From TrEMBL, chains A, B, C, D:
InterPro entries: Aldolase_TIM, Class-I_DAHP_synthase, DAHP1/KDSA, DAHP_syn_2
PANTHER family: PHOSPHO-2-DEHYDRO-3-DEOXYHEPTONATE ALDOLASE
Organism whose genome encodes this protein: Sulfolobus acidocaldarius (strain ATCC 33909 / DSM 639 / JCM 8929 / NBRC 15157 / NCIMB 11770)
Pfam families: DAHP_synth_1 (PF00793)
Designated name of the protein: 2-dehydro-3-deoxyphosphooctonate aldolase
Record-linked Gene3D superfamilies: Aldolase class I
Record EC number: 2.5.1.55
Any one GO BP annotation for this protein: aromatic amino acid family biosynthetic process
Entry keywords, A to Z: Transferase
Keyword Transferase: yes
GO MF entries: 3-deoxy-8-phosphooctulonate synthase activity; aldehyde-lyase activity
Domain DAHP synthetase I/KDSA: from-to ranges: 76-314
Length: 330, 330, 330, 330
């Protein structure tokens, strides 16, 4: 049950009633509203209190993430970039931060082409321990420096709860990766951090599980969440993962949170990235996350799927034309 | 090995050489070319003959379907409708033919909105034997009659080899359904029929298996094949099937055949159909197959996913705008 | 609704009542019972008649296949071999019939080791049209001849409705393959034939869809059906398919029909076949279908997964020991 | 490349050569051997040194986990319990630690029935933030206390790197859950801890990814790893997950590490647990992990799949009989 409270009311009698029920509950400030989430529903169905404006009984498992109580789309701000509004936001950058020159080259090209955020992994979740694991803090330093120089806010993947302070120092947005899509301690800490979060769908996770992962973030009082579809595991091996446009839309229809699509990881191959990006835009994505590398063939990770700056620029032109027809700016 | 032969040459010495090798081979007329397919490759690598224009060794398992030898996109003609050319072709109609009035209502609306083909199942592959199995020949009669009346060629699903003559009588294009995506006898007969074929990808089939199913058709000398992506089986249940845009593009990059997308069956729910349709168009589909019913809630099959005529018209407008930017007419 | 009728009663008043309702219905003789299936349930809930012994309202979609009305396990007889009884039945033989000597060698070895049925494909459903397609009728002749010579009933895959008469002539049991798991015309004809059917689960089919495929057979009055799990399509590629023991048991708990496991096709590799076979026996399979070839490396199909006769003999000894502990003979 | 070194040799010249190459390398003590892993292979192919006993070039991506260099099965000791040896080891206990009495009841019953390890989650990875999240440290205290009282070593799931010290204090074996199957920071810390690890396969992970996750542990010098198959995500929903016996065996054939099967989580329903457990034993599992609860219907997590103590005892008798035939004790 979601209780939307009157602002500046006295909540003490409500608290008492909740304490006397056997329900669990949590007071939250989200999107400028005072809320109480209580569960399970049945325990509090009859609670009435002066301070309650509306009580919303969600038909879904994720009352906060659901658009049942909040019908206006949420706009997530990363510095001055607004995700979820009129503009389609594109984040671009290398899979992994490799060195300053690499990031700078990409960042300049990305900015020129119209990207609004710079991405780049400093900590890389690699299937094999023998693969390049990322530059660590040094990578974040580079990303921060280049982002500032070029004038793009930066997003980078956090892999572990112990890294929160480091990311607060260097990053503007936390990326939670597909392999941590159900790392619940990390979700809780990212929620507590209050930082904007780009939450990838776990590669083996259903739409419901993805939205419930977001609910973990919101339940910590952090409403700055962008959901990111990046392909799921299926039997098909012609692509690296199967980009689930239908699942992305099914999510969008249930939530007020903005939705991002990452066409690079499902593609796995450069030549598929454009089509998947355009498909996601046409289907209604609010944001795209695209891997770009100055010299993809030499990349230390995901070398087959990264676009060259030229190909990215071409893609941006195609995206712009498409977005235009859909009534959106880039 | 694919041998492209000189026109009007004498092939008898080539035939003799092939007979003397232990290779299997087949002479074909496809797209105005004389061809020989021989296999396995290794058996004929050294065959040389006057009558051979070029010998193409395919890197893929489907030499005929592959675009290695035929770089221009194939245009499949269904009466006067061209699939695979400049125009994006939309086929619309009910999941199942239920009665004449139903089909007529939809056909008129579809035509008015810009559809170029009329679809409708007379024989329905139903998971349960207790579900409506289709009107049979009577359904085909209705479809034919309405198609002629409204001026739209008709496409309908064939389920069994014994029905070929019946379909020749009533239909302009054979649809082979997802449950028959590897019904090899049906593929062979559809190939022999020479009729245009809309070949759905089997719901559990890989892109390679789908292209090999098409190879069965071409190897019978029938090059009039449109490939249709309609969603694959995955763990995700928020949609009925997972529309595999990436797989569709992976197919397109390997073949000269036109590609169709069916957004209705993967959606499973009306409210997802528009987004999936637009995504498919943006990704480069040459054709769409969309279920439309005058009164979807009363439909005898697939009632949750069929669009109303009004919603279809709206979708056509959105598709037209999108196609326009992509340099395509509808 | 399933109506179990009194034997030798007068059914005319019941028929009249059914005709007067708007329900569909079918009279059947199954397992020595007179039955009427009617659908949808709601239309006939209130029908009462002298001739009705019990009316069973199934909670499942497959009333005939369900064990709600028939609690005793069905025993399917293939000549004198009983499947579903005390004995675990093993069918063995080559993937494809290649020549008489090949089949004879395997048949003798299989018989000696304890197999009770001889398998062998005369018509092969091959992913590629360039792969060996089977010997056709000649293959069935060989199988029949060898089966008679060695004293083993034979089972072989039928691929198309037009082949029913041919199979009646040569085979003791029809196999319906994984690619035809939802070929509904074939299911109907196999049902009408009355022959014992080994019904493979479609590689992309759920347990429910598999049981509904069996319902198609029973609804034609053919109760001689053995369900065969042979692996499903999943993301895992370390094996050819994923043998779904859990799904097999989930099926068994809902049906009176015997269950077979085919460990050869999910394994895809010889070295996995023993373990999968033993797992299936331990889980409760009533029958096993195992590919054995005198010289697997030379096999014209499925060469990596076929066992040598020696390995098969060893496996049979292991199966026998296991079955013994489980209270079953081989 | 894996270099197995002579004991007590002087490694300084080897170190120098490695430093002079551009290869990465790591010295390790594993299973009583001195080893160096170097990568990528090509960089060190020609290195020769006095101190090298054998250089093993693995054909697999996980040289340490692979059985190419270590042919004898690894026995993982958890206190005095040996996993991977002659005895089949069964770990039993509740999904979640709920209170002392609950754990004690189960622990006594489990011990009596023949279980050798006590399981129980103190930290629960729950899909929903509104589900019971576990008792935390208090849960570990209870588990430890009951384990000591009853005389069973305890295994419990760790969810985050910050919990390592707490687990060192209370647990005998770390469980890494299916949702953390690619939580690489957690894998590294679990590796460094040196504690025995029960490594579940990620629910969306391939066999190769699972073995590579284990490689992360061994590369930290921790060879005490048991691999646990617990079902993968597939389209089938008749069971909670699809237990991949084939994948489990494919893993076993490539590694020296012991393999555990968890039949409870793939089953999702009590009535399927016995069959899946027996199947896993027949296929060759070295260990089983089974959820048992004194009153499953009241359980705070996984209530549908937990066995009662009585059902567990019955299962143990069936397992014992089966193991016996397979030449194994319980
Ligand atoms: C690792 C990445 O993505 P994912 O978590 O989706 O695999 C990435 O964005 O580089
Ligand atoms: C049955 C149909 O499609 P599919 O074969 O893709 O399920 C259909 O087009 O109505
Ligand atoms: C083709 C066969 O099986 P399936 O239909 O299960 O692939 C076979 O039994 O040889
Ligand atoms: C949560 C558990 O398992 P898994 O990680 O396999 O889901 C468990 O063992 O209780
Ligand atoms: Mn990447
Ligand atoms: Mn339909
Ligand atoms: Mn076979
Ligand atoms: Mn559990």
């Amino acid at each position: 049950m979601l209780l939307i409270l009157k602002q500046n009311a006295n909540y003490s009698s409500l608290k008492e009633k909740l304490n006397n029920s056997s329900a669990s509950y949590k007071f939250l400030d989200l999107y400028g509203k005072k809320l109480v989430v209580t569960w399970p529903d049945t325990y509090v169905e009859n609670i009435k209190d002066e301070s309650i404006e509306i009580a919303v009984k969600s038909k879904r498992q994720f009352p906060l993430v659901s658009n049942e109580w909040k019908k206006d789309p949420t706009i997530v701000k990363v510095k001055d970039v607004e995700i979820g509004g009129d503009r389609l936001v594109v984040a671009a950058g290398p899979c992994a931060v490799e060195d300053e020159e690499q990031v700078l080259t990409v960042a300049k090209a990305a900015k020129r082409a119209g990207a609004k955020l710079l991405r780049g992994g400093a900590l890389k979740p690699r299937t094999s321990p023998y693969s390049f694991q990322g530059l660590g803090e040094r990578g974040l330093e580079i990303l921060r420096k280049v982002g500032d120089q070029v004038g793009l806010p930066v997003v980078s993947e956090i892999m572990d709860t112990r890294q929160i302070d480091m990311f607060k120092k260097y990053a503007d947005m936390l990326q939670i990766g597909a392999r941590n899509g159900q790392n619940f301690d990390l979700l809780k800490e990212a929620g507590k951090s209050g930082m904007p979060v780009l939450l990838k769908r776990g590669l083996g996770n259903t739409v419901d599980e993805w939205l419930l992962a977001a609910e973990y973030l919101l339940l910590e009082g952090n409403g700055n969440v962008v959901l990111c579809e990046r392909g799921i595991r299926t039997f098909e091996k012609a692509t690296r993962f199967t980009m689930d446009i239908g699942g992305m839309i099914a999510a969008k229809l249930q939530t007020h949170l903005p939705i991002c699509a990452d066409p690079s990881h499902p593609a796995g191959k450069r030549e598929l990235v454009h089509s998947l990006a355009l498909a996601a835009v046409a289907a209604g994505a609010d944001m795209l996350l695209i891997e770009v590398h100055p010299n993809p063939e030499k990349a230390l990770s995901d070398s087959e799927q990264q676009l060259t700056p030229d190909s990215f620029e071409l893609l941006m032109n195609r995206i712009r034309a498409l977005a235009n027809v859909l009534g959106r700016k880039v």
